[in-house]
Write a structure and sequence with these properties.
The chain is an alpha+beta fold. The chain has nine helices and four strands; from the N terminus they run ααβααβαααβαβα.
């Protein structure tokens, strides 16, 4: 915690990236591991994360991202894509992974798997998609925090057209939906917003103790 608050004050939603600076493979692996270790409901991780480096692909995505320069100037573009209609197979795969990871008999995990299925599978598809989409934001938070520790800039972006992302990246064919995106890299010296004081609610306005 000695540097956490300091890092949170350092980070901001970068408006202009330095296109000449790229994230090292070592740091990118740390970012990926932090995302992989993110909390999620039941531990299911009902999403996939696409790391877009291809400049031609990013050029296609920029117009459907409100024309934002970060899409093409950042070192990488991350697309968090949630599973639209989570089904029994996803839960069964998770049970197999849990049994293997923890050295357990998969039959002993059946009650837990059945419990998850009873809560998730009956939900309407739109409710399931909303729920899985929420999980991507937890992973996004881990990205923001680890990047700040590494002094890597991140811009979380909701200003994009999910349907177009799904079409361009073929996510709809995979049963996925672009939930939220983020650009990562290094701030440009000319980005004036890096010098702006943070505007946040006071503790008195934000917190209510009952």
């Amino acid at each position: 915690m000695s540097t956490f608050i300091e890092n949170q004050n350092w980070r901001y939603a970068t408006k202009k990236f330095d296109a000449t600076k790229k994230i090292s493979t070592k740091d990118l692996e740390k970012i990926k591991e932090a995302i992989r270790l993110s909390a999620s409901s039941y531990g299911l991780q009902p999403y996939q994360v696409f790391i877009i480096e291809n400049p031609e692909l990013r050029a296609k995505l920029q117009p459907v991202s409100w024309g934002q320069s970060q899409i093409i100037d950042a070192s990488q573009l991350l697309v968090f894509a949630n599973i639209v209609d989570i089904n029994e197979n996803h839960i069964d795969d998770y049970m197999v992974n849990m049994a293997s990871t923890r050295g357990m008999n998969i039959e002993d995990l059946k009650p837990y798997g059945d419990f998850m299925k009873s809560k998730i599978i009956p939900l309407p598809t739109d409710a399931k998609s909303t729920w899985t989409s929420k999980q991507t934001y937890i992973a996004l938070a881990n990205l923001l925090n680890v990047a700040a520790e590494l002094k890597i800039d991140v811009t979380p972006i909701e200003g994009f057209e999910p349907e177009k992302y799904n079409e361009i990246l073929g996510l709809d064919k995979l049963g996925l939906n672009a939930s939220v995106v983020a650009t990562i890299g290094y701030r440009h010296p000319e980005d004036a917003t890096q010098h702006y004081p943070k505007v946040r609610k006071s503790n008195e306005d934000l917190f209510i103790t009952l």
